[in-house]
Amino acid sequence: MKTLIGPFAQALPMDNLPLKGALDDAQLGIVEQAGVLTENGRILQTGTFEELKAGADKIEEIDSPMVLLPGFLDAHTHICFAGSRSQDYAMRVAGKPYLEIAKAGGGIQSTVDKTRCASLEELAAGVSDRALRHLLHGVTTAEVKSGYGLSLEDELKMLRAVRLAGSRSGLDLVPTCLAAHTRPKDFKGNNSVYLDFVVRKILPKVKSENLAGRVDIFTEETAFTVEESRKYLLKARELGFRLTVHGDQFTAGGSTLAAEIGADSVDHLENSGEEEIVRLADSDTVAVALPGASLGLGMDYAPARRLLDAGACVAIASDWNPGSAPMGHLLLQASVLGAAQKLSAAETLAGLTYRAAFALRLDDRGVLASGKLADMQAYPCSDFREILYQQGMLLPERVWKRGFRVK
Known about the structure:
Blueprint: E1 3-11, E2 31-39, E3 42-48, H1 49-52, E4 58-61, E5 67-70, E6 72-74, H2 86-93, H3 98-103, H4 108-117, H5 120-136, E7 139-145, H6 152-168, E8 172-180, H7 191-208, E9 214-218, H8 226-238, E10 242-247, H9 254-261, E11 265-268, H10 274-281, E12 286-289, H11 291-297, H12 304-310, E13 314-316, H13 330-341, H14 345-352, H15 354-359, E14 376-379, H16 385-389, E15 398-401, E16 404-405
Parallel strand pairs: 1-4, 1-5, 6-7, 7-8, 8-9, 9-10, 10-11, 11-12, 12-13
Antiparallel strand pairs: 1-2, 2-3, 5-14, 14-15, 15-16
Helix pairs in contact: 5-6, 6-7, 7-8, 9-10, 10-12, 13-14
């Protein structure tokens, strides 16, 4: 059955826009008094409501002014975890250094300990709860990483929990294996031995159970070096995984590696310099800014403005995690990043929609165009500029996933 949804005061299809580089709001191609014709979870056509009426079998009428956008994609999250790190946060804002927090029982290892103790069902319930909040905020696809298990049993448990939550959630979850988050304190051996263990023992099981098609690594002085990361990622690619990198959060190097090996994305980039920016602009590796981590840690933001001006593809993600980015409010974070980095509304919205879809190499969503998934959200306003202006306080009044209204 062909269903026409509308009329909307405005619709922003986000279609036919460049994948890389700066954007101006005048490029948005706004449709006034718009409608979207859908069938079997996909978009047939976007246009004016009156023009589309003749082809509809059913009309889902919008009786108040709303602005329609594609559903957001959050291309970097860690929403599979157990426990809280509120004690870490209190110590951090009081000026305690990371090592002191870790010695006091905090840091990533505390989340690892709690996640290992949690059952599969407990982890899946946590993912489902966080995914539902995302969905109600207009996020219709979210990437989810492992990385708080750091053992064969517990990494598989995390990814199985993501799969279980995905079967229950209203939004699509894209799993990523981050067994190379850090070397666990109870592992007997150095970084190279641990990464070899992940390649020989964990990744083949992840592949055989089809638990994830993507692999990530934290490339940083406190985690894994550039050379260690290169060897690991190339081996993961040989096993058939797509690649992404945590890079340039505290020191540069990860982004250059990501561009060199053709990773789908490199995420963080708070310490990327001009050389790194140029390398990313010359590649198809998406630069994913994570403003939630900057807010949580009191750090500078990724240089999104300079990346766009250089010609890079920039996406924006939440990094929702229990340690550095516990907020998880993607629209708020993106709005604040846009204000700080002087991003146009078009650039910010592109970073949450079709450019985020490209970071995950998903070509069936992120725009309101024929053949794409009917993943959509509508905000109670008449002017799209209100959405970012209210910095996350204006939430979508309606959300559709594959054409089905979920809010």
